[in-house]
Amino acid sequence: MSEQLVYAMEVILNGLMAGVLYALVALGFVLIFKASGIFNYAQGVMALFAAMTLVGIMNGQVPFSHLINAIFGSHITQFGWQVPAVIAILLTMAVMVLLAWCVQQFVMRHLVNQEPIILFMATIGLAYFLEGVADLMWGSEIKSLDVGLPQGINLWIDETTLNIFGYGFFIDNLDIVATIVAALLVIALVAFSQYTKQGRAMRAVADDHQAALSVGISLNFIWVMVWSVAGFVALVAGIMWGTKSGVQFSLSLIALKALPVLMLGGFTSIPGAIVGGLIIGVGEKLFEFAIGPLVGGATENWFAYVLALIFLVFRPQGLFGEKIIERV
Amino acid sequence: MFYREAGDFKVSYSQDSQTFPIRFDRYRYYVVLAVAFGVVPFLINDYWANAILLPFLIYAIAAIGLNILTGYCGQVSLGTGGFMAVGAYACYKLMTAFPDVSMFIHVLLAGGITAVVGVLFGLPSLRIKGFYLAVATLAAQFFLVWLFNRVPWFYNYSASGQINSPERDVFGIIITGPNAPAWATYLFCLIFLSICALIARNLTRGTVGRTWMAIRDMDIAAEIIGVNPLKAKLSAFAVSSFFVGISGALFFAIYLGAVEVGEVFGIQKSFLVLFMVIIGGLGSIFGSFAGAAFLVLLPVVLKVVGADMLGWPTDIVAHLQLVIVGALIILFLILEPHGLAQLWRVAKEKLRLWPFPH
């Protein structure tokens, strides 16, 4: 087997792994969009917020310590304890639920019946707000996150491929974990929306707000729940990305990475988010591998968008999106 | 009392179709122009020009441009930063290639080039709508910034990858570079803003503007009554990009002087201009001014209050600024989805009847 082909195979494998991580973020978007028709730009910042909160709780940081110190001239930063990862994750989840409730109570409830674009703008405002709050709460410096996930090269794959192709593939353990977690998450979400009472209520709300309301489903509750689930997905994505590349501002930019995934897969489809993520992940890694050196590299910044753009021109609703029917 | 149309009779068609039909509006407009052109240049100093007036003028042009596309034609664009970069780099290439040609022509040509690029990236809007289009315009944003970063021809093979605006003059007065007097740069931008606002105002109340609004309100219905969506959408993209290109050229050549594309014209810039349009009011020229003024003044005010008066560290002030901007956007959308322009309209309605509401 030629060397180029083996390299390409490694690139594809890595692309698939990256695609899973993109899909993880995209899932959060799809959930909220399906249930409330809101395109939640703040999803990436929610992942950042969740990861920062998790790190802060684990290290026993005092929230808003910088602000308090600036106002009162004090010098508190630490509670002086460490919280185990599992408890910290549970506490962070509680914070995300609280956040979901606040978003519903103070923002979305007042914007019912507004045009989708207004709601979209509101979530951009929310993104700014959350980013500022996260920085004020925990400080804006880069933090490392370690919840005990395995990291580093996977030796077994390295050895096996070395025996077969004569070249060891470099696959990060973390990426493998992320893939498994994403798969489990998707199964859990599908099961939740298909087989539980709340999941059915959620789908009913997604189909028709008013009809759902008239059979006695509480819209408020469903929306808080949906935002909580999105918060949970954000937390998982935050843990994965945060472990991979540190908890920092650029974490919120993964939302931008998830957008072309959504366009490709369609805004309303959970399988679409997965397939779209994989296509984008593999596509951009392959493109960078094959064409990147010819045009100066760093094509990953825009390739996904251009791919999605070209794709949309031929199929405006995405791969698995619902067909757009327009009436006058 | 003073703001009403009673007694303001129109006796000819040209009077009936003038830009400001109410006499008070017209006089106010003349007074504002007179102050801006005749008084401010004598009072201006470097701090005011660089911190407030220049950014305001330049962002106002960009906001008018985006407002035409998003507010009047209903096509949400997140590519404003990328189009501003096109204007800036086009201006830079023209300035260095033709040093003897007037800056006016360079800036206008830069706008024209941006318009062409804008139409190119506007083509998908014929197939894609709504969110899909908003995300598709991000393709323009990322691709253009990458292009200007990676292709050395655009920054004349300079070692730093930056572009620096060389010293150029208009009628013998230096307007770019560090030696330019504040009043000259101010007047140069003001002239462009006045012309752009005038063009935008008249375009939006004419045939072109009405077809845009028809497309915005319901594109299928507009198509059925005979509006050509191809023409309407692409003309909106062209005009909008023309303005945005001019503002990008001014932003680079007059205001900053040196630009690193990823930093200055990144996605944050797209959002900033979009916020100006939303806070100011979608579909309103006055709103573009109000939104630009608001978002230019807010950081300055916060910095003065937070860092200078209360003595807080600048990073906390910067974070607080994010919180406040985010909260304000949400608050505006909840309380007044039509922005500052709508507040002004309501105030005018009140003024018409004041002080005798019955």
From TrEMBL, chain A:
<keyword id="KW-1003">Cell membrane</keyword>
<feature type="transmembrane region" description="Helical">
    <location>
        <begin position="116"/>
        <end position="138"/>
    </location>
</feature>
<dbReference type="InterPro" id="IPR001851">
    <property type="entry name" value="ABC_transp_permease"/>
</dbReference>
<feature type="transmembrane region" description="Helical">
    <location>
        <begin position="217"/>
        <end position="241"/>
    </location>
</feature>
<keyword id="KW-0813">Transport</keyword>
<keyword id="KW-1133">Transmembrane helix</keyword>
<feature type="transmembrane region" description="Helical">
    <location>
        <begin position="261"/>
        <end position="282"/>
    </location>
</feature>
<feature type="transmembrane region" description="Helical">
    <location>
        <begin position="294"/>
        <end position="314"/>
    </location>
</feature>
<feature type="transmembrane region" description="Helical">
    <location>
        <begin position="84"/>
        <end position="104"/>
    </location>
</feature>
<keyword id="KW-0472">Membrane</keyword>
<keyword id="KW-0029">Amino-acid transport</keyword>
<dbReference type="InterPro" id="IPR052157">
    <property type="entry name" value="BCAA_transport_permease"/>
</dbReference>
<protein>
    <submittedName>
        <fullName>Branched-chain amino acid ABC transporter permease</fullName>
    </submittedName>
</protein>
<feature type="transmembrane region" description="Helical">
    <location>
        <begin position="45"/>
        <end position="64"/>
    </location>
</feature>
<feature type="transmembrane region" description="Helical">
    <location>
        <begin position="176"/>
        <end position="196"/>
    </location>
</feature>
<keyword id="KW-0812">Transmembrane</keyword>
<dbReference type="Pfam" id="PF02653">
    <property type="entry name" value="BPD_transp_2"/>
</dbReference>
<comment type="similarity">
    <text>Belongs to the binding-protein-dependent transport system permease family. LivHM subfamily.</text>
</comment>
<feature type="transmembrane region" description="Helical">
    <location>
        <begin position="12"/>
        <end position="33"/>
    </location>
</feature>
UniProtKB/TrEMBL annotation, chain B:
<dbReference type="Pfam" id="PF02653">
    <property type="entry name" value="BPD_transp_2"/>
</dbReference>
<keyword id="KW-0472">Membrane</keyword>
<feature type="transmembrane region" description="Helical">
    <location>
        <begin position="76"/>
        <end position="95"/>
    </location>
</feature>
<feature type="transmembrane region" description="Helical">
    <location>
        <begin position="183"/>
        <end position="200"/>
    </location>
</feature>
<feature type="transmembrane region" description="Helical">
    <location>
        <begin position="27"/>
        <end position="44"/>
    </location>
</feature>
<feature type="transmembrane region" description="Helical">
    <location>
        <begin position="130"/>
        <end position="148"/>
    </location>
</feature>
<dbReference type="InterPro" id="IPR043428">
    <property type="entry name" value="LivM-like"/>
</dbReference>
<keyword id="KW-1003">Cell membrane</keyword>
<feature type="transmembrane region" description="Helical">
    <location>
        <begin position="316"/>
        <end position="335"/>
    </location>
</feature>
<keyword id="KW-0812">Transmembrane</keyword>
<dbReference type="InterPro" id="IPR001851">
    <property type="entry name" value="ABC_transp_permease"/>
</dbReference>
<feature type="transmembrane region" description="Helical">
    <location>
        <begin position="271"/>
        <end position="296"/>
    </location>
</feature>
<feature type="transmembrane region" description="Helical">
    <location>
        <begin position="50"/>
        <end position="69"/>
    </location>
</feature>
<feature type="transmembrane region" description="Helical">
    <location>
        <begin position="236"/>
        <end position="259"/>
    </location>
</feature>
<protein>
    <submittedName>
        <fullName>Branched-chain amino acid ABC transporter permease</fullName>
    </submittedName>
</protein>
<feature type="transmembrane region" description="Helical">
    <location>
        <begin position="101"/>
        <end position="123"/>
    </location>
</feature>
<keyword id="KW-1133">Transmembrane helix</keyword>
